[in-house]
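Inputs:
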Amino acid sequence: MRKLHFHLCGNFKESYEEELAIFETDFGRFWLMAGVFILLVIVPLTSSSYTLYLLNTIGIYAIAAIGLNLLIGYTGQISMGHAAFFGVGAYTAAVLTTRLGLPLLVALPLSGVFTAIVGMIFGIPSLRLKHLYLTIATLAGQFIIEYILVQWDGVTGGAEGIAVSNASIFGIKLDSDLSFYFLIFISLIVMAWVMVNLIRTRFGRAFVAIRDNDRAAEGMGIPIFKYKLLAFGISSFYAGFAGALFAFYMMTITPEPFNMWLSIEFIAMIIIGGLGSVSGAIFGTVFIVMLGEVLSMATEFLMNYGPVADIGVNVAPLREFVFGLSIVLFIIFEPKGLAEVWRITRSSFRLWPFSY
Amino acid sequence: MSFFLSLLVNGLSLGFLYALSALGFVMIYKSSSVLNFAHGELLAFGAFLFLVLTTWADLPIGVAFILTLAGSFLLGFVIERLFLRPLIGEDLIQVIMLTVGLAAMFKGLLLFVFGGDIHQYPDFLPEAMNLQLGLIQIPSVYVATFIIGILFLLMFGFFFKYSSQGIFMRSVADNQPAAMSLGVHVRRVFALSWAIAALVCAMSGIVLGVINGINVHELSAIGLKVFPVVILGGLDSIGGAILGGVIIGLLETFTGGYLSTSLREIIPYMVLVVILMVKPYGLFGLKEIERV
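Outputs:
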């Protein structure tokens, strides 16, 4: 048996391999394995279908958020149109399976690829523009795609949407929350694993270089435009893949959910979770989905609560307010997000009783 | 022909409204190079404050107008003090995301208090201001808008060109550390520019409210419509914002009149993408030489 690695009391790294290692200690590796085991074996056995529904929603949004984090957190290009790309993925999957009769396992990656192409089209302005202008271009993309989804009746079914039916893998019908749970979380684990490793390659380093100083990056021989487009493509691929999962899971899709507000929620997820961190995107998604759930429960409670119901005020908009407030508070007080909070908590345990 | 003429007049007046609502946006961009996503909500805040003061508190129009402007000026200060000051020197991404969060907060609050319905101001503009130009009659609202717009345009033009505060603002937008080291009080400049921008927004909000009725959703949508307008004109040019507004307004009404009404809402954004690809700094925008 090989020697186990624990935390050293200082920075003694001697090679780039050590610097790039995902797990500093075997302890972390063990806990990740344990987490995956709990996620794939224990959770599905013990959860009610409502919990599974929540977890599935988190899983789907987390994939999209990881993609957005590559674009905003690692490459530094703000996109306000992620929900639209999410929608493009959903519609592509629906059209591919209902019109062309493709199986789910083919339709999923194909929708991702198609969305990546669409995303790259809206990334083209990045050839000449820096981030402020690019933000506006993606905002325009959001509105234009939304418009196309509503107006292109022949393909998207207009405001009525498309019904997606009989999702199945190798003859196994996916018709329960549980079966989707496995599909979604295996995808999430694979996608997160790919992203974590992508960041460690030359591509990942190039993205970070562009974010930190694009002129310096270009000076060091990184073809900026190519890499920016690539970041757009990969990020849209994640959005499209997640969107396709969303379409299969929801069974019917309408243009409605893919609006500007969802784009803002995606941004909120990665800001609250922590820019430039894969686990942060997942933390943020959990936070936002749970916040939304708690808020709608609170709203429902307040609506039926005697005194409030009597006055007849509509408390639903307060949801939006709390969302905005949480974004603002995180930016001001913890700009690195939940990932940083998690790191601080961990290290304060590790350094106890001398934590700071 | 009369259809064409009425479209023309409608387009021009709509465009002028856009231009007017873009002023506050350009103001903030010029002084701190922040894209303000909460712009529409600032418009709505002013419009609703005026509504509260005129209908609920029943104040005379003039007093209500001045109080609204004062209130918005204060709001601008408060926003800067509470939310933006902690971020001085931080990445622009953070500041922009902060305005997105602010937008959600304000929208939620306004919807909570006033609901999603359309509210109306009481009639207060004198009949005598209705203009008769040949065949077309121009309602007094538009005349008032036009006068206010021109007035503000001139004031801002002179403010940025000649006043020391205006020059400070431009220097801060251009390079914060450099401005600081030359003795510009960056925090005061920020506070002042947000306050003035909020004031301008309130005024535009009132005008928009008089013409279309006041509705939270619509006003915040106009806040996003400002983007095509300012990109077309050049982000930091007030004259450009006016011209951009007029072009976008004409484009919208003509598309709505001759092509299709559903295309009307989206055409500004299509134009926006084209402009960004062809002429990213707009018609009058300051070209940044550095380009990557």
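Remarks. The CA atoms of residues 47 and 206 of chain B lie 5 Å apart. Chain B is about 75% helix and 0% strand.
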